[in-house]
Inverse folding.
């Protein structure tokens, strides 16, 4: 199971819900694993616009209706 006992951001919870590891998601998005780990674990972390776009492009393959505001308060 994914995400058990971890403090996770909205993005982290989404990734856990779809049973994807950070390493797999890093390969899919082209974003570094370190940045994705930070985005998934730190609730207050807001990545750069470029990173957000890469993440959303991959996430929308699963759920086309996802918006930036679903993960980050901008």
């Amino acid at each position: 199971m994914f995400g058990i006992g971890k403090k996770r951001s909205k993005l982290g919870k989404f990734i856990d819900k779809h049973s994807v590891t950070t390493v797999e998601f890093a390969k899919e998005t082209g974003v570094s694993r370190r940045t994705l780990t930070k985005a998934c674990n730190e609730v207050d972390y807001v990545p750069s616009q470029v990173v957000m776009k890469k993440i959303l492009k991959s996430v929308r393959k699963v759920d086309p209706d996802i918006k930036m505001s679903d993960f980050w308060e901008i």
About this structure: The chain has one domain: 10-63. DSSP finds four helices and no strands in the chain.
